[in-house]
Amino acid sequence: MIVTGFRETLQTSISEKRRETAIVDSLSSTEVGDLPALSVGEAIQTITGATSHREKGGASEISLRGLGSFLSNTTFNGRDASNGSGDRAVNFNQFPSELVNGIKIYKTQQADLVEGGVAGTIELGTIRPLSFKKRRVQLEMKGSFSPYQDRVVGSDGLGWRGTASYVDQFDAGSLGEIGVAVGFQRNKTNNPEETYAASSTWVACNPAVAVPAGNCSEVSREQAAAGTPFALVPNAATFRQISESDKRDAVFGAIQWKPSPTLDINLDVQYSKRDYSENRRDLNLSELRYGLTNMEYDENGVLSHVEGKTSLEAVGTLLERQEEYLGGGMNVEWQATDRLTIKADASYSRTVRTDVERSVRLRTDPLDIYGNRTAINNQRVGYIYDVAPGSYAPTLTIDPRFNVNDHSLFSDDARIRRDELQRRNEIIAGRLDATYEMDGFLRGIATGVRWSKLTYSDYDDRVEITQDDRNVDRDVNLGCRTIFPQRDYLSNAPGGQLSSWATFDPVCQFQGYLGTEDPGRNDDVRSVANRDVTEKTFAAYLMANYEGDLGNMPIRGNFGVRAVQTRVTSKGLRSDLEVVTNGDGSIRLVDSGVFDTVTIKSKSTRFLPSLNAIFELRPDLLLRVAGYRAMSRPAPSALGAGRTIQLEDGTNFSSVADAISLITANGSPRLKPLMSWNADASLEYYLNKDSLFSATVYYKQFSGGFIPVVLNENFSIGGQDYSIPVVQTQNSSQKSRVYGLEVTLANRFSWLPAPFDGLGGKVSYNYANSNFKNEDIRLGAVLDPETGVTTPGMIPAANLSGYSKHVVSAQLYYSLGGLNLQAIYNYRSKYYQDFVGGNSQLRYVRGNDTVDLRASFDINKSVQLQLQAVNIFDEPKITDMPVQGSIRQYHYYGSRYFAGVRVKL
User: Fold this and answer.
1) pLDDT tens digits for 321-351?
2) What DSSP designation does 639 have?
3) Sheet harboring 79-80: ordered strands across?
4) Going by DSSP bridges, is the β-strand pair 877-880/887-892 parallel, antiparallel, or unpaired?
5) How many helices (H) and strands (E) does the chain have?
6) Model confidence over 176-190: pLDDT tens digits?
7) What is the span of the domain harbouring residue 464?
8) What's the CATH code of the domain at 197?
9) Contact 505, 482 (CB under 8 A)
10) What is the pLDDT, as a whole number, of residue 1?
11) CA 861 to chain CA centroid, nearest Å
């Protein structure tokens, strides 16, 4: 009987798990485009212990065993892959699942794997055309529908994705065998979003000190330790409506040439380009800490009620992103003798992401756009912030005398801003491996070397213009008004949420204010915040494979050691800062244009021993044990040598020093890899091709963590010298640990009578327990490196970034003839999610679960119909900050539906 669909994929995955030496879980198919998901990220989260961080309603970064994505390593055809996020976590939405044939997750390490995965290594693989052994032309077309996008005025919520692939083999006579594989995909879709978000900076406010005409009085760490109460209040809050378009093109290609039975040459390339635009319409409450009264809060400082006054801002933004990925390489495998095999590999991976964001802000004023007094007669409007018990959606009630839908009330302090952010990540690598087969207990010796050079650079350029000519404001205000672009905004959120406000077209506003839709970036994009990091790695390993009998019990496995030397060179800029006063009375700091370069170097050498052993207790029962040392590198952006200066909101400052909220190091070049000693034991029972039960226990002992430190640095600002504390992150000596249990059960209910014997499924569960600590930069514990004294934090530390205690994945499938049905359930408990580059306040994502559906029907051997539904219960994503329960943001993405047809020729 020929097995197809999800059952075939599950059978292949069980078979591969059984063959592997390390503890491995996989998802693979012998057919092109048969991974059961719309994206690689969604496919990975069906694998035991893997879960994703959701962005735009889809799976993006992956965490293994409930541990953060920064503790994992991802390779593409055995090579490191670059990304445009500034970290090492690959954005799996960049790769079409239709063009990836295999996914493996190595839960334990072995010496010949590329280093960099305390939690594990994710290996993506494309097809090798000669191994496919047949000609195949495949065409696939999917249409998509998003109900949320359909609510956007002028949009029908429709999208599409088309995929074409070709695989063939040729007998070239004396030249040997040649295989070719090529695939193309275009994806045009939309990812609507409705969200409320508080700012990324929260302050501990003293409720006992009244400040009727200013921001609340802050509580220091020392005051909090002495018993001063505090409530956690964000600087600002935003209601945001988003409509967007997203076009992605991808090309994958491979040529495999075997000129002789002993020589195999592979060349592969992957290219993807994403053009993305996002129209944002924001209503900002920009001064939530002004004139606060009647604060209600709990013992953790979580705010439940407050009354205050704030400026209101109508902000229109057009964000345009272009992201380009190019990767590939050449691999040569030579069977030098019957026993000796030599492999050489050279690879290249580059990602360039450029964001251009044009936004225009209009603020409230005592006068409307026509110069008339408003009902409020003040720049600031009264508001009430209230959180009902058990609710995740704060209700912000604005003084009813102020009509947020009246365009004329947004009349002052026009700010025209253009931001361009570019991140560039490039990896060049090469490796040489040799394997010598032997007789006896030691079956082979493998050795090899690897060299790589990673470069990461970024810049964030800003052109900002403010003006307060009311006549100009009035002309642009009247000419660029738009109707609120969405029906039923936040209609699914609890409480009485705002449903609309006055909106404007930012491109029209740019034209009206500046005479151009885009003034372009500054001629000089240098800044003290820029990063320029080079990381060079040299590694060598020696590994032995063994196989024999322990009494009557077969055993096999490997042991070895990998040595890794890393050299980091990080360049940062330093400049005097000048003070620019905006038209609204606020200030900003700009570089003087004269820069000095600071170069910081760091070096580390680590040894990574490993042991994997498999005991065949019975032909269908395996016991695997593993012990190894592993490392996870800091994100490239976390190795920067720049500085980021945050200013307080508002205008009433007696000095520049008072206006500076926080200066943080834009990375810490001397950060060392996070190291851990690890032990795993797995019991696996293989009843038949469709059935598996496995249980794995694991333990990880970390040799250090991270802690903020404060060092005083001198800054020249506005012609005066200031000594200002700068916060940066360094490795701590504190030890921590993670232990956990991972269980998988897969089965087909073949004992049921027909047609119910087509039912089957898989369920996996991971439990992890960790005592790791990540401190909040503003409010957590902080170390004085000169005295060695640690000041206690005001709020609890977070755990590992991405750490979830509970992760569940379940799939139920039904196969009958050409009909395949599948339901996929994913659950992840709450976790701390670091910001890219670190050095920010603590952000927690609440636990969430999603349900996806998938169906296909084979009309014949050549034609298949497909239906898919994603997030069918419209589960929102909810985040807290800086402590759990303190609501920062919630997102609604809605469900998405897909229908398509696949043709095989």
Assistant:
1) 999 999 999 999 999 999 999 999 999 999 9
2) G
3) 24-28, 102-106, 120-125, 72-76, 79-80
4) antiparallel
5) 8, 47
6) 999 999 999 999 988
7) 5-904
8) 2.40.170.20
9) yes
10) 44
11) 39
